[in-house]
Task: structure prediction
Amino acid sequence: MTPHDFSARINKLPKWARDYIHQVQTFVGAPEVEELTFLRDQNRALVELVKELKADAKAEKPKAVARDLALVLQRLYDSEINLTITWLWNGGVQFVLTSYMDWELIGTPLEYRKVLVTNQPRLERIGPDPWNEVRWRSELAEAIHKAAVAAFPESRYAREWGRVN
Result:
């Protein structure tokens, strides 16, 4: 093929293709070639990563929807199950499935603490700790639900809402 034939074939190409070929011909330095090679390799790596992420997304199980705290509280109320929730800033959330009016019988969360620095005398409770605790408020609805189903398996709440979310 002569240079004239080659030029004639290039001239038959669309303008964008001719411009691209001209641009490629003007790159003569090693930095440009190095950058193009790097970009090509990076592009290939990104394409592979996208394929892997898509495959992982298809293989993942759908995430469970978080329980709605307001709905759990309303269902407990409708089922006549008492609940007390308390918290201290940055100390998690404590709850017990009883009314706050029964604290004399069950005790407060502090009475079940193993280590408590205080100069006040306190009553040490004997028996299992009825208080439940979660670290994050986002965990509260699920924890209350599980505790209610376990504590009151024959209740209306457990019968109607005790199945898996």
Strands lie at 84-87, 93-96, 132-134.
